[in-house]
Amino acid sequence: MSTIVPVATFSIVGCDPTTGELGVAVQSKFLAVGSVVPWARAGVGAIATQSYANTTFGPTGLELLAKGLAPQEVLDELLASDEGREHRQVGIVDARGNSVTFTGGKCLAWAGGIAGECFAAQGNILVSEETVRALADAFVSAPGPLPERLLAALDAGQAAGGDSRGRQSAALLVVKEGGGYAGFNDRYIDLRVDDHPDPIKELVRLLTLHREFYRAR
What we know:
The protein is of the alpha+beta class. It has helices at residues 57-66, 71-80, 130-141, 146-159, 199-215; strands spanning 9-16, 21-28, 38-41, 45-51, 88-94, 99-103, 112-116, 119-123, 169-175, 187-193. Strands 7-8-1-2-9-10 form a six-stranded antiparallel sheet, covered by helices on one side. A four-stranded antiparallel sheet has the order 3-4-5-6, with helices on one face. Strand 7 and strand 8 (119-123) form a beta hairpin. Helix 1 (57-66) crosses helix 2 and helix 3 runs antiparallel to helix 4.
């Protein structure tokens, strides 16, 4: 049986109702955090599942959103069937901008979240709550497309303290209808930095490269 390691991290889920883009940005002192935390589906919503992450919250939560349940209703359903709910942390936003965040009572301090119109920001094992406040403030005030706003929020969260254990990996997932390669799926941007001394800076570099690569074609 594999060892369960807490996905101590900070993340933000967000949407842009104008463009239809939905996404998740995340950073952690955890190897390949992008393989665990971010989930999203075009026209439906985006979910971050972390702390002692229950990865079923991603696909199950998206299915419930697709059926028309509000984020709070989805969260209630997910937690009701999970005996480890007090160890979980979750952020959910739907395609209309409704959002919710949850931090279980047994998540490791500092842990908490903020939900607002079109976003939910959350983190655990943080230096302080200022990281989550910075995530929220930066997302609301940042200009430009959703991917850049998500990374601006992540960068602000790190500058405010970030994960108290340090840095290792980061990821950005953004979806929109027909946004994937050749329009075959919704995976518009899917970038991961699995192990790096400055993962957010590297993720910003990759997003810039991504923009240049596809602009040239």
